Amino acid sequence: MPRHPLARGILVLLAGIALAAWVGLGRALFGIAGDLAIVYTLTLGTLIVVLHLLIAWSVVRAARRGYRHRPATIGTLVTSWACGVLLGLLIPDITATGLQTILTRGEEPALGIAIGFANPLGVITLVFAVVAAVAARGDAAGRAHLPSEEELFD
């Protein structure tokens, strides 16, 4: 992580924007963007960006106050990112030839399996981003800060 507090927040926010773009518009990179790309961008993409904006704000506040982030905060954020990347690979879009995903194109039964995994991955991505936002806010309030021996006895 960068040392400057604002740089940390910008890094988290840029990761959130990239993840939102991947989930919403990633299929365009593979030539299978369809009618649902705008819907995904305006719904999932907006939620992802807003959550990452909250996380970034808390990251900056914690860094400015000299607090560290708990491993749980970082772990939930990274898990959200990983699930979001997988979601982008498996989320279906409606094209002229029917439903397609990046990994399966329109091939059955793989398409049905991909759609079956995409739904829980979308939920997990958002839930872990919410948990990361709550945990980052707690970190910014000093919940992860362990007092030094001098602070304990002052």
Brief characterization of the structure:
With 154 residues, the protein is mostly helical. It is 68% helix and 4% strand. A two-stranded antiparallel sheet has the order 1-2.
Largest beta-sheet characterization: 2 strands, antiparallel
Averaged pLDDT: 90
Helix content: 55-70%
Strand line-up of the largest beta sheet = 1-2
Overall geometric form: elongated
The number of distinct helices, counting runs of at least 4 residues, comes to: 5
Helix-strand string: HHHEEHH
Q: Which regions contain 5 or more consecutive residues with pLDDT less than 50?
A: none
Q: Cα-atom Rg, whole angstroms?
A: 19 Å
Structural class: mainly alpha
What's the arrangement of secondary structure elements?
Layout: H1 5-25, H2 36-64, H3 71-90, E1 93-95, E2 98-100, H4 110-140, H5 149-152
Antiparallel strand pairs: 1-2
How would you describe the overall organization of this protein?
This protein has 154 residues and is mainly alpha-helical. It has one domain (5-142). It is 68% helix and 4% strand. It has helices at 5-25, 36-64, 71-90, 110-140, 149-152; strands spanning 93-95, 98-100. A two-stranded antiparallel ribbon has the order 1-2. α1 (5-25) packs parallel to α3 and α2 (36-64) packs parallel to α4 (110-140). The chain is elongated.
